[in-house]
Design a protein that fits this description.
There is one protein chain. This protein is α/β, with parallel strands linked by helices and about 300 residues long. The chain has 10 helices and 16 strands. The strands form 3 sheets. Strands 3, 5, 6, 7, 8, 15 and 16 form a 7-stranded mixed sheet that branches. A 6-stranded parallel sheet has the order 11-10-9-12-13-14, sandwiched between helices. The radius of gyration is 19 Å and the shape is globular.
Length: about 300
Amino acid sequence: MSTVLGYRNFGAADVQEFFERPDPSPGPTEVLIRVAAAGVNPLDHLLRSGQIRDLNGHVPFPRVMGMEAAGTVLAVGDDVTGLAVGDRVTGFALTGAGTYAGTTLLLGESTARIPDTLPWTWAATIPVAGTTALDVLDQLALPAGATLLVNGIGGGVGIALAQLAQDRDLAVVGTGSTAKRDLAMATGATFVDYTAGDVVERLRAHAPDGFDAVVDNVGGESLRDIAPLAKKPDTLVAVGDPSVTELGGLMVHRRLDRASLERVAELMATQRLDPHITQTYPLARAQEALAVVESRGATGKLVIDMSL
């Protein structure tokens, strides 16, 4: 048995509750891990709210929060290759088993071993924020020297994008609230505070002819405001808002595979990517962490550390 944070119905934060769950057994394509750390993401509360039932509508209640984790392999399904009991791994809980838990199931093909030098908390940020940033940049395939606007640079995906883009010699400009300024500028990006007047006009001052690409992490009206700043519609990529296609842009194509996880782990291990974890929480305080993310007040990445 292990303690988990989950919900028995779709809804707001008040449907969340702690309960005990028997340790699950892996199916043929799954691995069971003891969770060492779990990342906290906007995806978590969106799933709980029932806004994206295509991803979790098939999962029976009660459901467990969380989509990404790092930990130690306890058991391996018969059809899983390349992983063994005792391996240190990171991966996606695409099984629906959640990650705000002592143990969980990961899909074998979406789980990768991590270097011994990589901290658990860092590894737990790889599946969602790390690989999303990698997928965006691979999809855009911009040449060195190109300009990139990151709308919403201060969160987990935005901070990863800023670093990986500059690693590819791209010139990065990012938007965010005042509280995100120092962290964004620490990556070397140019920062534009969206609370300080007409953000579009001030962005145009940095790229009068438009940006070679625009990545949106915010959605809604903010996406519509910044969309015209992309030189070409197909260089507008959204991480979370599918209405980008109405503007001629594209959603990020997510790969969710072992190779992508391994690439991000290597970028972290070689100090080319720092997830900028600004706070860690014990599982008992996971609801506090999720509330910060749900309020859009998180700077950098928040992580649940099972050792606390």
